[in-house]
Amino acid sequence: MRTELCDRFGVEHPIVGFTPSEHVAAAISRAGGLGVLGCVRYNDAADLEAALSWMDANTDGRPYGVDVVMPSTVPTEGTQLDLSEFIPAEHRAFVERTLADLGVPPLPDDERAGGGVLGWLHSVARSHVDVALKHPVRLIANALGSPPPDVIEQARACGVPVAALAGTAEHARRHVAKGVDVVVAQGYEAGGHTGEIASMVLLPEVVDAVGERVPVLAAGGIGSGRQIAAALALGAQGVWMGSAWLTTAEYTQGLAASATQQALLAATSADTVRSRIYSGKPARLLKTRWTQAWAAPDAPEPLPMPLQNILVSEAHERIQRSADPEVVAMPVGQIVGRLNEVRPVAEVVADLLAEFDRTLDRLHALR
Fold this sequence. Notes:
Layout: H1 4-9, E1 15-19, H2 22-30, E2 34-38, H3 45-58, E3 64-68, H4 80-84, H5 89-102, H6 122-132, E4 140-142, H7 149-157, E5 162-166, H8 169-177, E6 182-186, E7 192-193, H9 199-210, E8 216-219, H10 225-233, E9 238-241, H11 258-266, E10 272-275, E11 283-286, H12 289-294, H13 307-321, H14 345-364
Parallel strand pairs: 1-2, 1-9, 2-3, 3-4, 4-5, 5-6, 6-8, 8-9
Antiparallel strand pairs: 7-11, 10-11
């Protein structure tokens, strides 16, 4: 399996793996793909610096990238405390009442989250770019579309291409017009922030719109070699996979709790829901008692980004420590139905490649 994307990024396989775990990202790169580390959880630039330094030492010289969360325009942004003041009291009361109903215990007083994941803020996302460009990253991706023009130029001056996620062909055209180097066409099936159009429809539309100018990666619902073959057949130069790595052995070294793994392993492709409760923008999550509580008639409407994340940040930390898989708060795509066992990243990649080869053999036999 080799496309022009492999030569561009110096990888063996056109598999780009997004993950919030540096252990998983490094393992993807070592397996011949391009591991992309999600930066949004790093509130402190020093923490991200330490994670990328670890990546430098544990990727065997293989390339890797980073993913940031940055709006395309610079918002008026106050302090963390200023933003917290915009959260209505009834929203806070609903969260506390729901956590109590679900039996989720509070954090110790000295471990209170205190205001949300700052990585959702524009200023902190910019600091993530500054830190990343001090390392040998090969790609900077933005989960919220095109980064501001000066950020694109900053990356370009360092020889680092920029990728942006697109949920429509028009989004893709705008990205290219603004100087984005790689478009990730992310379908409705994907975990996290996602649009309204399914991958089978979206991908050829995006390829037809921009594929002659920039490479397109397929994202959303990809977790097998057959699906990679389908993506390449539809015109993609590679795939962007996220959810497929959540049940890898390396993920347990990073963020995963046993309850989270239990919930993911037990879920079917029907056990996800698209909601604004995670960050304020539509995102696909694992369907649990937490998401059901927000869907109840008496639940408040989610707040806009970044206020919703600030509202639920401590709740997510409390839920993550809970031993109950029925209350997990976790972004994941519909491909979760295929995640039925814990396996090392290298084994997952090997199976993807083997199934891809079998798929091509089967198609060739039809000629």
